[in-house]
Amino acid sequence: MQTKAYAAQSATTPLAPHTIDRRAPGPKDVAIEILFCGVCHSDLHTVRGEWQGTMYPCVPGHEIVGKVMAVGKEVSHFRPGQIVGVGVMVDSCRTCAQCREGLEQYCDGPVGFTGTYNGSAGGGTNTYGGYSTSITVDEHFVLSIDHAEKDLAAVAPLLCAGITTWSPLRHWDAGPGKKVGIVGIGGLGHVGVKLSHALGAHTVAFTTSPDKVADAKTLGADEVVVSRDEAQMKQHLNSFDMILDTVSAPHNLDAFTALLKRDGTLVLVGAPPTPHPSPAVYLLTARRRAIAGSMIGGIAETQEMLNFCAKHGITSDIEMIKMQDIEKAYARMLKSDVKYRFVIDMASLKE
Ligand code: NAP
Ligand code: ZN
Ligand code: ZN
């Protein structure tokens, strides 16, 4: 199936129109017309070759909301016309211990999980993501969406930004009686603030952008700290159960580990292209603090997050763009100038 898309042909070429081939749905496949696709910072890291191993042409996009066009004959959970989502994964081995536990993102199979883009599609080809008008995905990796139709564009970012913050918040028990920090109020961070607040944790937002302070309170933060202000940081020494760091660039982690209480954990989800400065060991030993990492979330917990968000009226705050404006959106994302996630209206690619 010939499908319109936007692709980068190399790390230094801007995204431009490109045609890709989507497979006809096999017995377990769902063919989806893409309505909206969020713009994750990982898209930018990948197309620009900031991480190792980008395969070109590269069609990014893993925050997909669309409408089912057709289903294979063994598909049981979806029917044509249904609104569905696709996130960061489109396949995994399904048999290893991680997959059996529903944690497909940590698949132990030979290639790990298959990314929605830049994953192996077999035969030396790579998978193509959501900056396109349609996608075909095995039903195991398709999510149901219960939000109202008017909210669908704002639901798209939940498929990556939502689950990437939800999974660690749940794993480290964010909830009543816990003090949780969210570092970086971008796409991931602003959803993280909403989720932490909705889970009942005392939520503190950390930002380098003083102009985001008022917004962060509206998003649900109980307190907001401008992280470059040492006096403000000092007021929170030794007090956090958990701090979730979503920052996309290398930075000083010690400033945040010092804010953890005994046995507190700094969880890194941001994935900068180059390492953070090495953290000071004494800050960890002094209070048995930990630094951990977390990657997206499994399919079952993604569905749990989507259901929670539908129930609590949670969506992303978005700026809708046309596909043709993607490079301008990337430039603004690099300046932390997005309130708070760009979402591509895929109708613009069909024009
Ligand atoms: P984003 O929208 O660009 O947000 C990143 C935020 O980090 C910015 O808004 C800014 O917040 C802060 N920031 C940026 N540069 C900074 C710097 N030099 N120093 C301090 N703070 C800085 O990006 P995103 O889409 O949320 O993604 C964030 C990171 O998570 C990316 O590296 C992405 O690849 C990664 N990611 C990881 C996973 C995973 O599974 N682990 C999943 C998705 C994305 P303030 O203006 O508030 O300071
Ligand atoms: Zn992402
Ligand atoms: Zn597996």
Structure description:
The chain is α/β, with parallel strands linked by helices. The protein contains twelve helices and 19 strands. Strands 3, 4, 5, 10, 11, 18 and 19 form a seven-stranded mixed β-sheet that branches. It has a six-stranded parallel β-sheet with strand order 14-13-12-15-16-17, covered by helices on one side. A hairpin with a 2-residue loop joins strand 8 (120-122) and strand 9 (125-126). Helix 4 crosses helix 5 (187-198). The structure holds NADP nicotinamide-adenine-dinucleotide phosphate and zinc ion (ZN) (2 copies). Residues 40, 42, 62, 88, 160 line the site of one zinc ion (ZN).
Explain the layout of strands and helices:
Elements: E1 2-7, E2 16-21, E3 29-38, H1 41-47, E4 64-71, E5 83-86, E6 89-91, H2 97-100, E7 114-115, E8 120-122, E9 125-126, E10 134-138, E11 143-144, H3 152-155, H4 161-171, E12 179-183, H5 187-198, E13 202-207, H6 213-219, E14 223-226, H7 230-234, E15 240-245, H8 254-257, E16 260-268, H9 281-285, E17 290-293, H10 299-312, E18 318-322, H11 326-334, E19 341-345, H12 347-350
Parallel strand pairs: 12-13, 12-15, 13-14, 15-16, 16-17, 18-19
Antiparallel strand pairs: 1-2, 3-4, 3-10, 3-19, 4-5, 5-11, 6-7, 8-9
Bound molecules: NADP nicotinamide-adenine-dinucleotide phosphate and zinc ion (2 copies).
